[in-house]
Amino acid sequence: MNYAQGGDNSSSTRAQWRMKSLTPVTFGMLFHDDRCANIFEALVGTLRAAKKRKILTYDGELLLQGVHDNAEIVLKPSPVPVAAPAAPAPI
Length: 91
Known about the structure:
single chain; alpha+beta; Arc Repressor Mutant, subunit A; 35% helix; 9% strand; Costars_sf; Costars domain-containing protein; Costars_dom; Costars
């Protein structure tokens, strides 16, 4: 379930939802997008947190407006959940 459907309200989830609608995306596109400006109070911090959680990737550690406007931000595919092994039946 994505943000538009009422899913998780975290900034990282909102970033994923917004990026899916803009793919491929650059930092400049996100920074200058009015909808992103209204959703994310701290875009750079949100992107850094999402990168740390391996939700997305981009070159470098810190993105700065102007200098990194052409830096491409790539949304990583969601990992496939692994089913937990079944518990042994009680004896």
